[in-house]
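Entry 14. Ran structure prediction on the chain below.
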Amino acid sequence: MKVLILTHRVPFPQNGGYPIVVCNTIRGLLNLGHDVSLFALDPKQNAHHHEEYAGSYDLIERIHYKSYPINIGVSIYEAVLNLFNEHAHYANRFHDHGFEKLLIQELADRSYDIIQFEGLFITPYINAVSKHSKAKLIYRSHNVEHQVWHRLAVQKGDPLKKWYLKLMASRIKKYELHQLNRFDAIGVFTAQDRDTMLNCKIAPPVSILPVGLNMEQYKPDYSKVEFPSLFFLGSLDWMPNREGIQWFLNTFYHDLSTGELNVRFYVAGNDIPEQFDDYEVMGKIYIQGEVDDALEFVNSKSIMIVPLLSSGGMRVKIVEGMAMEKCIISTALGAEGIGYTHGENILIANDADEFYHHIRKCITDEEYCKTIGQNARKLVESTHDISVVTNKLVAFYQQVLTD
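Output, structure tokens:
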């Protein structure tokens, strides 16, 4: 089977949920003998130095790969103008005529069975692809985008921000539903996202395809774990992550810095704004920014905090944390789509009191944390192993090809 995967960002290095999912999909398909191509937009216009591709050369060498630099920046003038524009500039800023031309040439040179669009930002190219290819078009939803924006709006107290986010949610929903109905089939990570799409009367068939991990990469080493310690790992250019961690820091700042929660808290990830440095407290709260090795960082800490208040899709970082046998405290929204059992393989906290209670319990009972983490690993092994997930994906492709 020949598969072309289209992404709105370069999925290297694998330092976040999106690139992890994309690369594991490619690895799984290659392992089963399929022919895979990857065409990626590059909004950051990286030079792709050696360290950018570290750990990915084995993958790149086995696929037909091209990246294309694109500028998605928006001026203040354009931002104001877009308030009066009915179209979802949110996604259309990823459209570039040069990349479209490259894509059309590729489709003239090669024929594909499956062309998979990874998320809403790459859908502006569906016109060109459907016109120049007879392949089946698959949409993989990493989030139901309009739902994320709606949940953000609900959380806001500021009337102006609430109005703006509701406006964006409405426009994105209109665009998103229109685009999704143009595909032959849709893959989602969670039953919740499937139900949301069905409630929106999406026409193409929607299948649940879980996040897949190569379990051999996840090797916990308890000799290097700091206990007790709390940590958060996530990209803060994604609004739900930023909103969630700000709420957590604001809520527990005094408890962590001078109160009864006698534990160090580490915040790591990409694109952490400079103002987050104000939360640092020597020996108590560490704002680390981007880490060189995400799994090494995760292994070195004991209790993972996922304070998401608005979200969608599946949080790959939780699945990775489970694979590394971490004790995870998450909101129910953050853990959405994972077949967890509260108190057995994860701890669910939906308000400040519940977070406080679970943190107090965890930082004083190492064996309790280990048991939660070990049970989490068992859950991931049974439902998220890359070989199991890829077999489901291929069966999904074959069904679409025969319909």
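Residues 2-212+385-402 form a domain with the Rossmann fold fold (CATH 3.40.50.2000). Will compare against last week's run tomorrow.
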